[in-house]
Amino acid sequence: MKVALIGSGISGFVSTYFLAKEGVEVVLYEKKDYPGDHARTVTYDGVDLDLGFMVFNHISSTLVVL
């Protein structure tokens, strides 16, 4: 069986791992030139910064960084 997954965020990586572990041929597609989407490391002014998942709560308009 062949499966195509779209998006290399945490869900795409975990799904790819478990499907491949079961013998499924998986192709993972990502539109950006880096994997991970929100969870990634960026370099700003010579400093490496780890970014994580961000949640915007529409009720209280609060930005929560986990």
Automatic annotation (TrEMBL):
Keywords: Oxidoreductase. It is an enzyme of class 1 (oxidoreductase). Gene3D superfamilies: FAD/NAD(P)-binding domain (3.50.50.60). Transmembrane segments: none annotated. Pfam families: NAD_binding_8. Its EC number is 1.3.99.27. The keyword Oxidoreductase applies. PANTHER family: AMINE OXIDASE DOMAIN-CONTAINING PROTEIN, PROTOPORPHYRINOGEN OXIDASE. This is Putative 1-hydroxycarotenoid 3,4-desaturase. It comes from Rosa chinensis (China rose). The lineage of its organism: Eukaryota, Viridiplantae, Streptophyta, Embryophyta, Tracheophyta.
